[in-house]
Amino acid sequence: MRKYIRHPSDIPIEVDGVDVQNIESLHDVSFGGLSFVSKNRIKSGSKINITIKFVNPSFVSLTIVKWCRKRGDHYDVGVSFCDPEDAYRARMIEQICHIEHYKREALIKEGRKLTGEQAALEWIQRYAAKFPSFEHQE
Hints:
Helices cover about 30% and strands about 30% of the residues. With about 140 residues, it is α+β, with helices and mostly antiparallel strands. The chain folds into two domains: about 5-85, Thrombin, subunit H, CATH 2.40.10; about 85-130, no CATH class. A seven-stranded antiparallel beta sheet has the order 1-3-4-7-6-5-2, with helices on one face. Strand 6 and strand 7 form a beta hairpin. The protein is globular and about 45 Å long.
């Protein structure tokens, strides 16, 4: 069982600090860290910088690789944050990811083209109360 509740995402990321090619996207974000897909194996214990440019200013965090698992023709990589403050910042990114998914679903399923602000207001009204708090992730 995972220590933290995780939520899927498809936000592009950049990884620096190791020879990593073909990073596809962020898999998920949690209070403890995040995971992503890589074409290359990354050794556990490696320190790498993660950058998410999807938000402004960009999210940049030094992380430590906790696990790397082969899956088909790629690797799933899990990292933990070195700075505890990054966990809080990552939580905000997680919410932004949920809002972006909500915005896309409104367009695909309902034909509604929402602005970022409209999507955020609707998502907050519908789902914010159900969004797991830090207290629930121990």
